[in-house]
Design a protein that fits this description.
The protein has about 130 residues and is α+β, with helices and mostly antiparallel strands. Strands 1, 2, 3, 4 and 5 form a 5-stranded antiparallel beta sheet that branches. It folds into 2 domains: about 30 residues; about 90 residues, Cyclin-dependent kinase, regulatory subunit (Cyclin-Dependent Kinase Subunit Type 2). Helices cover about 30% and strands about 20% of the residues. Binds to the catalytic subunit of the cyclin dependent kinases and is essential for their biological function. Belongs to the CKS family.
């Protein structure tokens, strides 16, 4: 195996590990209860809600996708326990949690990933109809 193939194999292995971690996190969330915002937390967040930006939808054979961009300053108002302590980015939020932040979308959307280089961007997907 040459050096390029080793790098490709290593990269593929890392991607598989990340996918497994995401799947485990999603499975755990199905058993979790949402952590709802307190009235004080809602009051801090409400000023940002009209500044939330929604991308156009895009799709592949199985899913429809979109990303939601929160105002960067909004991240400071979001409770710390909404964040992953290891990465510092938002954890995968349950539907009631992201709706509590003011994200409004039709039914069926699932928060499945964050765009790590830009932690204010949340990635959503839903099965194609």
């Amino acid at each position: 195996m040459d050096k390029y193939q080793q790098q490709q194999s290593s990269h593929t292995s890392q991607q598989q590990q990340q996918q497994q971690q995401q799947q485990q996190q999603q499975q755990q969330q199905h058993h979790q209860r949402p952590r709802m915002l307190t009235p004080e937390e809602k009051a801090r967040i409400v000023e940002f809600q009209e500044m939330i930006h929604y991308s156009t939808r895009y799709s592949d054979d199985n899913f429809e996708y979109r990303h939601v961009m929160l105002p960067k300053t909004m991240l400071k108002a979001i409770p710390r326990d909404y964040f992953n302590p290891e990465t510092g980015t938002l954890r995968i939020l349950l539907e009631q949690e992201w709706r509590g932040l003011g994200i409004t979308q039709s039914l069926g959307w699932e928060h499945y990933e964050n765009h790590a280089p830009e932690p204010h961007i949340l990635l959503f997907k839903r099965p194609k109809a």
